[in-house]
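Researcher: Re-running this chain for the archive, since the previous output was lost when a drive failed. Same request as before.
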Amino acid sequence: MPEVSADRVMPQAAIAVFARAPVAGKAKTRLIPVLGARGAAGLQQALLRRTLATVLGAALGPVSLWCAPDCAHAEFRRCRDEFGVQLFPQQGCDLGERMLRAVTQVGAHGNVLVVGSDCPALTVGELRAAARALDTGNDVVLIPAEDGGYVLLGLRRPVFELFADVPWGTVRVLAITRERLHRAGLTWHELTESWDVDRPEDLARLLAIEPSFSMELAHALTKMLAVCTPAKLHGQSDGRRSRPAHNG
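Model: Regenerated structure tokens:
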């Protein structure tokens, strides 16, 4: 009987998706000047559904949805019913503590991947590649974000040092993570850098990869193009601050 190549075996990993409730005025606040409060909340909802469809399509293992500020929002319950995911509230003083709780709970018996809900460029292939990186011996896997954070973090076991005393929301997140991995003597693998939908100039890229968003964003995009310079549309604006993409 012919041997099955290791790279043909489907890797396994639990996936924890972090998301904020799509509440008008509180969701995607940096996009409110362009989309309006309700439009920004609607975009948050659409991005969450796209993320869940992608992670379930990867078929790596159980998928859980970690909700902020809690699991009470109707959209979270609809996602539970329609996608078959388990809901958990995000708990902790900061993003690091909330992620550590999730990793400890869902990754207790194997590999775990943590992603946010606002990286529409994330693909089934990238998720499988991340899980395979862990299966082949790496302690950690990362997908770096353009803003200095990361859009995916995968681990074979919880690593406390990666979550404590990190200046979340700054361009230093990824650099600090790499430094701590090196200091701890852990092995890690990085996939190709990606991006999330956070600022008005990101909307053009969103439409390029997901035309189905066009009806919702067409009016907003027209407005954005009228006020944004070409440099801003290509993400070359000066010193934009970052945030870690995986907090939804």
